[in-house]
Amino acid sequence: MLLGQLRVTTALRRAWPALSALIATQAWVAAQLAFGISVAPDSTRLALLLGVALVAAFVLVLLLVDSRPRILRIAQVMVGCAVFQAFFASAMMMSDLDKVPFLDKVFERGGASGTFINRNHLAGFLEMNLAIGIGMLVAQLHRHPAEGWREFLRRTIDTVLSPKFRLRLYLAIMVVALVLTRSRMGNVAFFSSLLVCGLAGMVLQRRVTRNATLFFVSLLLIDIYIVGNWFGMDEVVERLQGTSLAAETRDEVALDSIAMWRDHFWTGTGADSFFEAYVYGGYMNANSLYYRHPENDYLEIGSGFGFIGFALLGTAVLTSLWQALLAQRRCKSSIRQGLGFASMMGITSVLIHSFTDFNLHIPANSLWFIVLMAFAWVAIAEEEPYR
């Protein structure tokens, strides 16, 4: 923009509530460092650098993703990254290899993890990309039912021979990997967000038609009953059934985190300072284990950033989610509606998953999440009537 090579887009101008909240969050983290609020300045300094980078990524998406080809291109790249992760993770889990030359990690048979250290974080990554892929399929749905069996047959053949079929195959590969992660909350977050957002999307886009209904029903049936069961959905169900407070230790660290946040409610202990505040601040009780994260994004952000930072980040996320809903209701462009759906489902899935994990503290996942937030503002920006 400064060199005159980029113009200020409608998306960037419209996104001022979320962008202002994100910038204010980084200013607050800088204040935590400047006024000695953080108990772990080195960790908070790294959090500030990551936060500035994420804000820059948010702005770049708003500036550069301004046309249908660019929307499709960024969606293809993001889904392509997920397909690689899914294929690699599935292959490593099904093979006898426990190490590969270019990764300093040991692969376990208990769950697929890909290049991620934790299988739950691969699940979070796949959830967001599945939302993008489904959003792009939604953009290609026919708005009106087929008139007669000939048109239905023509549409079916056209679908099989078109890129839509390839995208559907990619979604199946990602679902296989998601099931193979054996991540309880990862699978719950994906399928629940698909069900809720699918129904909401049909209503918002005024597509409560036979085609849209069959599309979402086929996603659930094929992914759960065919792909999921073939690759071990029953093992995920068994893990869910075996979950109890007596067997879990996350509830103890959650209670410790609540006590920490209560003692530093407004200002927090410093961004990403949980481990130091937890272990050395006297909040770790005798029954708790050593945790670097409280396995809950809300508690970690609240105890670290304080209510001030928590409210600012919440403002950015919720305003973006609201724009994703509006984009599906107001926009006439199918690609904009699909992008709004991708943003809505991806954000919702991560928000559900965040109750029992810390995906937002994994750089790759936080980058994908901030891009999904930007997608909402790109979708609602009435810049040009591209379809």
Please tell me about this protein's structure.
With 387 residues, the chain is an all-alpha fold. The chain has one domain. 70% of the residues lie in helices and 0% in strands. The protein has helices spanning 10-14, 16-34, 41-64, 68-94, 119-138, 149-161, 163-180, 184-204, 210-230, 233-241, 250-263, 274-280, 297-330, 334-353, 363-380. Helix 3 runs parallel beside helix 15, helix 11 (250-263) packs across helix 13 (297-330) and helix 14 packs antiparallel against helix 15.
The poorly predicted ranges are 383-387
Oligomer: single chain
Overall morphology:
globular
Total number of domains? 1
The amount of beta strand, in percent, is under 5%
What is the H/E string?
Answer: HHHHHHHHHHHHHHH
Strand runs, count: 0
The largest sheet is: none
Structural class call reads mainly alpha
Number of helices: 15
List the helices and strands and how they pair.
Layout lengths: L9 H5 L1 H19 L6 H24 L3 H27 L24 H20 L10 H13 L1 H18 L3 H21 L5 H21 L2 H9 L8 H14 L10 H7 L16 H34 L3 H20 L9 H18 L7
Helix pairs in contact: 2-3, 2-13, 3-15, 4-5, 4-7, 5-7, 5-8, 5-14, 5-15, 7-9, 8-9, 8-14, 11-13, 13-14, 13-15, 14-15
Tag the structure with descriptive keywords:
387 residues; single chain; disordered C terminus; mainly alpha
Explain briefly what this protein structure is.
The chain has 15 helices and no strands. It is mainly α. It has one domain.
